[in-house]
Amino acid sequence: MSADPRSYVHGRSDRESTRLHDQASGLGFLLHEGTCYPPGSNILEAGCGVGAQTLLLAGNSPHAQFVSIDISPESLAQAQERVLREGFTNVTFRQADICILPFRAGTFDHVFVCFTLEHIPDPLLALGNLKKVLRPGGTITVIEGDHGSAIFYPDTKAAHHVIDCLVTLQRQAGGNALIGRELEHLLTDAGFVDVKIFPRQTYASASIAGSSEAVRSIFIAMIEGVREQAIAEGLIDPEGWDRGIRDLYRTTEQNGMFCYTFFKAVGRKGVEDL
Amino acid sequence: MSADPRSYVHGRSDRESTRLHDQASGLGFLLHEGTCYPPGSNILEAGCGVGAQTLLLAGNSPHAQFVSIDISPESLAQAQERVLREGFTNVTFRQADICILPFRAGTFDHVFVCFTLEHIPDPLLALGNLKKVLRPGGTITVIEGDHGSAIFYPDTKAAHHVIDCLVTLQRQAGGNALIGRELEHLLTDAGFVDVKIFPRQTYASASIAGSSEAVRSIFIAMIEGVREQAIAEGLIDPEGWDRGIRDLYRTTEQNGMFCYTFFKAVGRKGVEDL
Predict the structure, then answer these.
(1) d(CA B262, CA B200)
(2) What span, in angstroms and rounded, lies between the C-alpha atoms of A76 and A69?
(3) What DSSP letter does each residue of A125-147 carry, written as one string?
(4) If you write DSSP's letter for every residue of B163-186 in order, what string do you get?
(5) Residue ranges of chain B whose CB lies within 8 Å of a chain A CB
(6) How far apart are the C-alpha atoms of A48 and A198, rounded to whole Å?
(7) Which ranges of B61-194 does DSSP label H, i.e. alpha helix?
(8) So what's the ipTM on this one?
(9) What is the distance between the alpha carbons of residues B229 and B223, in angstroms, rounded to a whole number?
(10) What is the pLDDT of residues A30-80, one digit of tens each?
């Protein structure tokens, strides 16, 4: 979620929406393990997008109440439709900008943010705002990827080049595709205490059923989503692009491997931090 | 362990020997967790170096018998001295080349190899030789790092450059500092079955006591060990080197982080693979 919804680097196509849901269901356990909120607690999900994580949050904490916000009305409509279709009644949706939150100080018991800070020009400002609407003693959970953590075999310059194109485009749009490694200092700098980082690493190869399909439908599909933009911006030519994408697919085939690390951070607002 | 002991990229200095023991004790649980051999079993440790892993093997499986080999008589002498000093009596040392093993087929119940294949020009040949001396149904455990897995904050080109110098020197010496990601296909190609990969990731920051010290004494010390060679080979100039090392140290200070993944692979020799 960026200040300008049009600058969202991954786009808002149907394929992208499907990709985000694939990502959430395939990685659900890896990312959400350990995230379960007590009955009656009141949680802000900041940057819910099309509701991919919302479904998991609502399902894993059925007796907690969620307020899920996003800057994009289109994404919110999709999220709401999906959550209702799944029968969850513990989520309220609201259009809002993470940088200008329409809530009173101390409104929420907990805050959850996933794949959102990576798109924001000033993540520290966003974290400061989120801390304001969190009650003293409440927790924040942030999950972000880090494309620099992608290691794969066979390893080729062409494959790194297409990944670098996404990193560059995301930076040009004000985001940071390498933000995972920064979560500890960001939460600490924003004034959260007891900050703990839980790296969640995936390893995909032919020996793990379904893992290579997930690399294709989640990671490679995400890279492929910026093809036209990368070529239009002069970051790569069509032949280089196609070679890099072919090399990425190669890592999901016989004898290949692909590894990626998500960073999950949990911090707390001090009890005397009013 | 390389075919030519003089080409061992990390050198054989006292500081290097201390570094290897620091590495083994600091990372002992992370790497050896799950590696425990039944009483009476007969294990080949191929490439024991100065005995850093030998101590952990012998301690974790006190009723198993180890034969630890290395190509370097100096390293073996240090390993033997250290193991005796610690009071272990279940290890026999023998000078041998992993590529010309002086054992009959099927001699060992299990084989253990740690930080050795990364120095060998033909790891597939070595694995084939190790499979020969393993009994049908026996297991092989291989642990290797992968310097491409190093991600850190602050992230600078200068820091990557000094790491790349070690990767290049190791490749020039016939090794591969990025071999971790290749363990699955190497073991599979060598004919082992039921190959499983266990990535073991470390996360170091000021919030985890002792972790940043370990990055300095293990990883950065290893990089620093090739300074003169990297400059002599024209891979970098002294100013660039010093800047890169300073930047690496910076990742172990306030607000910094350093992440690294070791790959542990376990495979089995088929029961009908004679």
Answers:
(1) 5
(2) 8
(3) HHHHHHHHHEEEEEEEEEEE--G
(4) HHHHHHHHHHTT--TTGGGGHHHH
(5) 146, 148-149, 151-153, 155, 178, 181-182, 184-185, 188-189, 195-197, 199, 201, 203, 205, 207, 255-257, 259, 261
(6) 21
(7) 73-85, 123-133, 157-172, 183-189
(8) 0.89
(9) 11
(10) 999 999 999 999 999 999 999 999 999 999 999 999 999 999 999 999 999
